[in-house]
Amino acid sequence: MTEHAQQSVAAAELPERGQPLAGGTFVTRYWLNGEERALVLLDNELAGAWGKYGEDVSGAKSFSDGAANTRAMAEAGSDIAVEALELDAHIPSYLEGSLLMAAKADGVIALREDRWHWLSTQFSADYAYGMVFEDGWLSYYGKSDGRLVRPVRSLPIQ
User: Fold this and answer.
1) pLDDT higher than threshold 50 for residue 140
2) What CA dihedral angle connects 126, 129, 133 and 137, to 10 degrees?
3) φ, ψ for residue 120 (rounded to 5)?
4) What is the pLDDT of residues 2-26, one digit of tens each?
5) Which residues, other chains included, contact 34 with Cβ-Cβ below 8 Å and sequence gap of 6+?
6) How many Å apart are CA 79 and CA 64, to the nearest integer?
7) N or C: which end of the chain has fewer CB within 10 A?
8) pTM for the whole thing?
């Protein structure tokens, strides 16, 4: 894994949305599993298949916890999940993708609009969710299809 020193952020040290934080851009505050967190978008762009068509990844069904989904994807052999984890990041969940779209619509961040991006939330053994950031359209696609990923970090707010 890439060395990444910042594992949390103090509430008083949070920058304005759209400003640098933890090697990326601070997107927003949100709650995950009873803990307030800071969502950070990295500049890296990954590309590849979500995983194997027809393979159920039982640990990748969370609509909110992208880090847990990404770990499950990597354990199942997903190359893009392994790449994201090597960046000390993860593939956004359904919720985190929606938060990215809201931040883009608010002018806080810029996202590529010409391609679909994978989200880490599995729809079924054959499909996983994806989003296009031109208009925020969500759908699901065959896991073996090639799509882009914009990895994120989620830091606990102290």
Assistant:
1) yes
2) 100
3) -85, -5
4) 455 589 999 999 999 999 999 999 9
5) none
6) 21
7) N
8) 0.95
Please give the Cα distance from 22 to 10 (Å, whole number). Answer: 12
The alpha helices in 47-145, defined as continuous H runs, are 66-75, 79-86, 94-105
Residue 134 one-letter amino acid: E
Q: How far apart are CA 97 and CA 77, in angstroms?
A: 22
What does the DSSP 8-state code read for residue 87?
A: T
Contact 47, 57 (CB under 8 A): no
Short-list 56, 132, 147, 47, CA closest to 98: 132
Do 48 and 113 touch, CB atoms closer than 8 A? no
* Longest alpha-carbon distance in the chain: 46
- Residue 140, phi then psi, degrees to nearest 5: -130, 150
The pLDDT tens digits for 120-137 are 999 999 999 999 998 888
Return left, alpha or beta for 20; rule: phi > 0 is left, psi -120 to 50 is alpha, else beta. beta
Tell me the angle at which helices 66-75 and 79-86 cross, rounded to the nearest 10 degrees. 120
Beta bridge partner(s), residue 155: 38
